Amino acid sequence: MSERVAVRKTYKLFVGGKFPRSESGRSYLVQDSNVSLASRKDARDAVLAARAAVKGWAGATAYNRGQILYRVAEMLEGRREQFVALGVPADEVDAATDRWVWYAGWSDKLPQVYGGSNPVAGPYFNLSAPEPTGVVAVVAPETPALLGLVSVIAPAIVTGNTVVVAASPTAPLAAVTLAEVLATSDVPGGVVNILTGRLSETVPTLAAHMDVNAIDLTGVTDPELAADLEVRAAENLKRVLRPVPVDHDWLADPGLGRMTALLETKTVWHPKGV
């Protein structure tokens, strides 16, 4: 009897809640597995999926978004050993799960902290409330592969934004496996879209895209590339989050900065009754 040949897994892109191959048909090898190599067309398709999901996700109640993020944490906990088998340290998987829970808890509390009633001179109510920016492009950090990824995705989506994530080309397996977690949770299709491959190919397209409202350059380590992306982003006045230092402590308390950086503030005036 001949020895069985194992089926090599092909890690595909995650766009619109589905797992398509790259439209170019290209892939590259990581840890004996084929990983799709996203093209500029894939990046544009991901933006379309993210834009289509904005209305439903931003329109969901904050409580509902929090429930969904907590469900992601539950599913991530259930796949702990799978991430460990990919080379993600067990304590990092635990930290990433805890980070999901932490952000889930802020979903219905942030508006109370970041919004409120403003004192005005006149018989009016003046109320300010946070609203999502829209579609956010995110460059994920290379390390820590999973905790860094969760730390840039969760704060963007908990406030009602949708994201297109360019995963680290050297550590894509954790990203696509996280996509499998998201696909089996209650996250609506298009809220999170994950591209694998060369950053130099997909990220400039995202930075220049007219339907992307903000870009998070956290994972960009090349200063020249970061500067070029900021110039491209300026074309439609995207909000830009600059790269973090190489020695950034991802285990530290993340604070509210990543959530509030991707929010707009809407102020409403209303006359007081007699």
Automatic annotation (TrEMBL):
Gene3D superfamilies associated with the record: Aldehyde Dehydrogenase, Chain A, domain 1
Source superkingdom: Bacteria
Domain Aldehyde dehydrogenase positions: 34-240
Alphabetically ordered keywords of this record: Oxidoreductase
Name of the protein in its database record: Aldehyde dehydrogenase
